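(Protein data)
===
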Amino acid sequence: MIHVLLRYSSYAAAIFLGLYATLLGLLTTPAFQAHAVYLHKIQLTWFKDLNVPESFGYLTNQVTPFNIKSSFGGKLYAWHILPIELYRQHELTLIAEPAGFVDDITSRTAFKLLREDHEANLVIHLHGAAGTVGSGYRVPNYRALSAGQPSKIHILTFDYRGFGYSDGTPSELGIIEDATAVVDWAMNIAGIPASWILIFGQSIGTAVTLAVSEHYASQNPPIVFAGAVLVAPFADVASLVSTYSVAGIIPILSPFAKFSILFNYLNTFIKDKWLSKDRIAQYVRANEANGKKYRLTIIHAEDDWDIPWHHTEVIFWHAVNATTSQGINYEELEATKLNTKIHLGAAGSVTEWRTDNGVIREEIPKTGLHDVIMGNAIITMAVMRIFATTALPLVA
């Protein structure tokens, strides 16, 4: 009996190892790797039509679906979401217009309410892998983002190329170009000044946020937004795959992490590297050199099973290290945090690093998982905190 069990166990182990080896082999091919990283063919809208935002819980014409042209000539599908109090004030005018997708958003009341209000704030939302603008916890996330100023904070969210109704195939460079096109639309077509725009990213959207923020901060003259909020970021793809497990169960490269030569070899096959730890350092360094005011808030739940929260500690360190010419090593920063960290009990902890130009804030709540946190009050407060200080000098 034992012999039979051992034999079947060996068969099962051989099948598992064979499937795992096949998966690793497929992951070395660019096409399969793109599907594995971005999961862009997984819609998660449960047969709902994105052109009918009311089916996602919105009021008639509170959301305007439209397209933004990307640099490659394709269309990026987007939603402009009105804050609820502003909607209430103009409800009769809004419901009198035809509902659904519009070819020319500039002709719509919602757009005019954004462009003509010189005190309007705009959150540009950069979502994570898989799904669309209407998937999962993203809808409650939009509500949390605008809840702090329900008459002023508009949301602009869109699907990267290859996601949802957007054209194209995703890649690191392509997605960055898409996000840049959306930011350009917000500043040049909607007429929103950079100082009234907040960039919000979650999961892989944090990597896009940092790439876009660094891109504009490096321009001549530099362009710096009101701030950026990063939820569940990762240091880079190489370090992510060393810890990441599909559904928290099936590891990708973590079994090889202890074998540095083999692990580094496998990393050479990674096409889209998303070097967030380097980009946040470049962003901070550029702002410090240019004397530009900036605000960064990094939020990561301790119970995030998808991306371990220690990635935020690494991101935070790289940002802080870039604020000084002499730098600060990881151990020194951890020692400093022991004296400066604010402990909030069951709500987690907060650490701030301030310079004459910027504020870098690390928030580690105890709970929130990877996606649930997006609809929580901590997100509303992060946005309120940044917009409340948009026109004010930062206090050292």
In short: DSSP finds 14 helices and twelve strands in the chain. The first strand starts at residue 63 and ends at 69. The two ends are 73 Å apart (CA to CA).
